[in-house]
Specification:
The complex is a heterodimer of chains A (301) and B (405).
Chain A: H1 2-17, E1 24-28, H2 31-41, E2 45-49, H3 64-71, E3 75-78, H4 88-95, E4 107-109, H5 142-159, H6 164-188, E5 196-199, H7 205-211, E6 214-218, H8 229-241, E7 246-249, H9 256-265, E8 269-271, H10 285-300
Parallel strand pairs in A: 1-2, 1-3, 3-4, 5-6, 5-7, 7-8
Chain B: H1 2-32, E1 35-47, E2 70-73, E3 76-83, E4 88-99, E5 102-114, E6 121-129, H2 150-156, E7 161-170, E8 176-184, H3 195-198, E9 201-212, E10 216-233, E11 237-239, E12 243-264, E13 274-293, E14 299-319, E15 322-336, H4 340-345, E16 356-367, E17 370-380, E18 386-398
The chains are: A alpha/beta (301), B mainly beta (405).
Chain lengths: 301, 405
């Protein structure tokens, strides 16, 4: 009996004194938010990205593995603005996890804390898969990332008050490096200003808005609908009279249409990383913008 | 000229104010009104065989039929759902259908579900699709084929829908593991009579699932369903002139099932290409009495039945928008009774026939909201082989549908 009590007290002691690592488990809908959470949360958080750069975040199924993951999450970080409306509400309802319901501190929508572009005046499905709350791909503007980071570190502190000094310090550190990087990117991207670029889907609105790039056309006839031969021949006409510098697409989009148009109008085609893991070199948010601007500049020459 | 300078900013200002007001208004509306989804389904059916539909060895009930010939409407459905408050979610689905010239509104789902018990627990109450099996809780417009598989048609009369209570628990494991139990009324086919004071049915299910690498996902499920049944009515038989006999069953019913789904998409990006393989098997044991209501004197028999069935289907999206699918389904039965003539009348004698069917389908989805389908089956449900052809459209209007696994 005495031995048992001793064993329990040793176990208790070990449990109480062992360093608490990764106290917060974060479910991020997209890899960019997992990366931002890692920047701000350091070793106090462990993050899981529900999608990869090769998956279209509009078209994810509420898979069993995702339900099991979100069941155990302390915090859910997603783009919002209806990007995940086909699968996230279903995951949340299936999870039975009280901490991460919309409205609770465990639910964070990045797009809800920044100004959004492309807010439609008329909501009509004949205009394609439009989002009533505006374009959700907000992570492609580093200025918006800065704002989101500020809200996100505060949210981490709400959920894990013991770590609030730690999160604040990490936010300051991130913020400093980020501001410096933005200055550098803006310098590097000067040649891109005013250029016309063809996009596959309007994923790039925020990046182009930041760098002063003009969207010349979209390969999708309507948002969310695949390119058709008829639409491509129409683009050929307009882009011959008013040429564009290049055609860009993401790793999760089929490059066929972009490549076909590129041959017809003799314009370079570029696969941009879009998010973390989009190319081998992109391991964090800093790499994402560095590589994207390098690739855009590369195609100008 | 001067006039123009004054009015233009006013007009622009007015317009932008109107736009701002319109969006603000739309956003408020959207956030407080329930999500409304309207599903329209229409079809053209053609059969090579005009005789009455049968599944020898099975009592037909619910929506067990081939559907109408020629132009006809399918499953037109209106659904409302919303969070009620921070505690409950609610949903109501009605089906508008025409039966013998009269338009009827059927209540398909009407339930509330808890949102905030936490720890993986959820309670659902009302009328809902049972969560047993894989396909049972899917609305017909989400099916990969126009009609239900023979095993659902033969055992459930289409789908198991009942009024009651469901508890489920998502176990906090790395691999998806969900357990559930249902207690329901048992007033609808394949139960009947709402036995035990309206508490006639119990069901249980366990589901497991996960990913293999980034491109594969799977789910495996086990189900059990049992019912006390009082006078489950089946399809009517006309007997001579003016005499209509309705076979009814009273007794116990116990069903076990296993279901499996495997999905593949390159890099997990199902938008471009994906493949789905699914199979389900159910076996049902029944012990009780079958009577022919309306017969005089009343004809009856003891009944000891074992009925089973399975299907295997695969659907392949080979390019965006286009999918092709194949399904094979089959039923078996071994039913005994004291009066084989009554069993035959009730449709419970398999007449030495094994119902089976092969189906091919091709569909095109212009967007997430519309689908057009062509389906051809070689149907050996009963002795006379039949070739069925369906052309179908299914569209959804309103709220964005959920991408279920």
């Amino acid at each position: 009996m005495k031995n048992v009590i001793q064993l329990f007290s040793v176990l208790f002691f070990l449990l109480m004194t062992s360093p608490v690592l990764a106290s917060i488990y974060v479910f991020a809908c997209e890899p960019e938010w997992a990366s931002l959470v890692d920047e701000l949360g350091g070793e106090r958080v462990s993050s899981y990205a529900a999608t990869t750069a090769y998956q279209d975040p509009h078209h994810i199924e509420a898979r069993p593995s995702l339900i099991a993951k979100i069941r155990r999450a302390d915090l859910v970080v997603c783009s919002g603005a209806e990007l995940e409306s086909g699968w996230l509400p279903l995951l949340l309802r299936q999870a039975g996890n009280n901490k991460i319901k919309p409205g609770k501190s465990g639910y964070f929508e990045a797009a809800s804390v920044v100004e959004r572009l492309d807010i439609p005046v008329n909501l009509d499905r004949s205009s394609g898969d439009v989002h009533a709350s505006g374009n959700p791909h907000v992570h492609l503007d580093p200025r918006r990332i800065q704002i989101i980071a500020e809200f996100l570190f505060k949210r981490l502190s709400d959920i894990d008050p013991q770590g609030s000094a730690y999160y604040k310090q990490r936010f300051k550190n991130f913020s400093q490096r980020w501001q410096q990087a933005i200055k550098q990117w803006q310098l590097q991207a000067l040649p891109l200003k005013g250029q016309r670029i063809v996009v596959h889907h309007r994923d790039w609105v925020y990046l182009f808005d930041w760098l002063g790039i003009e969207i010349a056309a979209a390969l999708e006839p309507k948002p969310g609908l695949p390119a058709t031969p008829g639409h491509l021949s129409m683009l050929t006409k307009t882009l011959t009279t008013e040429p564009a510098k290049m055609i860009v697409y993401t790793p999760y989009q089929n490059p066929r249409a972009a490549k076909r148009l590129s041959q017809i109008i003799n314009t370079p085609v570029v696969e941009l990383p879009y998010t973390i893991g989009g190319t081998d070199q992109v391991n964090n948010l800093f790499d994402l913008f560095t590589v994207s601007i390098e690739k855009l500049n590369g195609a100008l020459k | 000229m001067k006039k123009n300078y004054i009015t233009l900013p006013v007009v622009i200002g007015g317009l932008s104010f109107a736009c701002f007001y319109a969006t603000a208004f739309a956003a408020t509306q959207a956030s407080f009104n329930p999500d409304i989804t309207l599903t329209l389904d229409g079809r053209y059916g053609s059969y090579s065989n005009d005789s009455d539909y049968e599944l020898p060895g099975f009592m037909l009930g619910g929506e067990a039929s081939r559907g109408g010939q020629g132009f006809n409407l399918g499953h037109n459905e209106l659904s409302f759902s919303s969070n009620i408050d921070d505690m409950f979610f609610g949903k109501l689905t009605t089906v508008v259908a025409e039966h013998e010239g009269e338009t009827e509104v059927e209540l398909e789902e009407a339930y509330i579900e808890t949102l905030s018990i936490g720890d993986g627990f959820t309670i659902k109450a009302g009328r809902f699709y049972s969560d047993i099996g894989y396909m049972n809780n899917q609305h017909p417009h989400a099916w990969d084929f126009t009609d239900a598989s023979l095993v659902y048609r033969g055992l459930f009369g289409g789908q198991l829908i009942d009024d009651g209570l469901q508890f489920s628990w998502l176990v906090p494991t790395q691999t998806y593991f969900k357990l559930g139990i249902e207690a329901t009324r048992g007033g609808r086919f394949p139960a009947g009579g709402a036995a035990n004071d309206g508490n006639g049915v119990y069901a249980m299910f366990a589901k497991f699932g996960g990913d293999v690498g980034v491109s594969h996902a799977w789910q495996l499920g086990f189900s059990h369903w049992r019912a006390d049944i009082e006078n489950r009515a089946s399809a009517t038989h006309e007997h001579g002139v003016g005499v209509i006999e309705v076979p009814t069953y009273s007794g116990e019913s116990s069903l076990n099932g296993i279901d499996f789904v495997w999905k593949w998409a390159p890099n997990g990006n199902s938008r471009e290409q994906n493949l789905k393989i699914q199979a389900e098997y159910f076996v049902r044991d029944e012990e009780g009495i079958v009577e022919l209501d309306g017969s005089s004197p009343l004809e009856s028999t003891t009944y000891l039945g074992e009925q089973s069935g399975w299907y295997l289907q695969s659907v392949y999206q080979f390019i965006p928008r286009w999918r092709i699918g194949y399904r094979y389904d089959r039923l078996d039965s071994d039913n005994q009774g004291s009066d084989s003539a009554v069993l035959l009348e009730a449709g419970l004698d398999n007449e030495g026939h094994t119902p089976q069917r092969s189906t091919l389908m091709l569909d095109y989805s212009h967007s997430e909201y519309s689908r057009i389908r062509l389906q051809v089956s070689k149907d050996d449900s009963y002795e006379d082989s039949d070739t069925l052809m369906f052309m179908q459209y299914i569209v959804t209007l309103g709220a964005h549908g959920a991408h279920r696994f």
